[in-house]
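Q: What would this chain look like folded?
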Amino acid sequence: MPERKIAYEMKPGEEFEPFEFSVSPELNQTYLTSLEADHPRYQYETKLGSPIVHPGLLINFSNVTRSPSWYLPEGVAGVNAKDEVEYINPARVGKKFRVTWKVTDSFSKRGKPFFIKETLIVDEDGLEILRRRGVDAFISRESYHEENS
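A: My prediction, written as structure tokens:
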């Protein structure tokens, strides 16, 4: 089992344990159906290769909470405060993907811990697919009630 460290205690340079996933045609189609996204690029092979994985699926599967080492104590919530996403290359249905997360900065604002993390998705061939730079905030049940009383 991976070493679990409370997420908001992660320091710049530290990384969460990677997460790997595959996108089958069935998974991609289920996602497309839920979005009512029926563009042919997501469903049919072309001369460039198999269908493209919908970018929204990649974003959902690259949330840091998917890391096996992600951990927050009871009564604390992580909130994604901001994200910048760069879609570098198309992800192809049928491929396996690896997501990594690295904390690049941490700070406190109004008494709450924040960190900035960089996320990278690569496919099984090492091709960079997507980069995210995000800010996560952490709030405890107690601090929420204090602010809203």
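The chain has one domain: 14-147.
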